[in-house]
């Protein structure tokens, strides 16, 4: 006899970063965070901010793994979301129907979630805008999902080309979504501080009239790497 699989698999340990680690990423642009990880961590450019909503969110990932066209795990995330969580709802890239709609967003906001990220589209734009929960998705569609499962909550999933584990930091803004793995949070926090310092210094130089790129100036001066034709 083959045992019927369970509809939901839920991790017992829904790990989260410390409050200090979470605070360290607040307000950091995705570009700074990405540079601090040497260019790694960006989700697909197809995942963009939902129109008319705030394009700024940062918090620990609560990962909901769904089958294409299903949202059972996302519904389960409503019962486990903690204040400040970013629900990352994997839909295996399915574009045939919405990964969620305005009522799900409303309940997640009521539960304290700080944002929502999915590799599928959303629906009910007017309702989404009324709720106001920041959300990143692949677009909009009127298609409605089902809630049959199976699904997972708190277990790893692939979203937008990135493996996301529970407790990873999600940093999202108008440029897109970046995933910072839990295991390297402290190293990235240290690195992003240096990136921010360098970027702000360069911003000041540009504002003061800088019009020369060091790398190109050196190549022109030395002649190395240039082929005049």
Automatic annotation (TrEMBL):
Amino acids binding substrate: 101-104, 123
Binding locations of Mg(2+): 124
A Pfam family: RraA-like
Gene3D superfamilies per record: Ribonuclease E inhibitor RraA/RraA-like
Swiss-Prot/TrEMBL cofactor(s): a divalent metal cation; Mg(2+)
InterPro entries per the UniProt record, alphabetical: RraA/RraA-like, RraA/RraA-like_sf
Keyword Magnesium included in the entry's annotation: yes
GO MF terms, alphabetically ordered: metal ion binding
Keyword Magnesium: yes
Keywords of this entry: Magnesium, Metal-binding
PANTHER family attached to this UniProt entry: 4-HYDROXY-4-METHYL-2-OXOGLUTARATE ALDOLASE 3-RELATED
Record protein name field: Putative 4-hydroxy-4-methyl-2-oxoglutarate aldolase
Species, as recorded: Jannaschia faecimaris
Organism placement in taxonomy: Bacteria, Pseudomonadati, Pseudomonadota, Alphaproteobacteria, Rhodobacterales
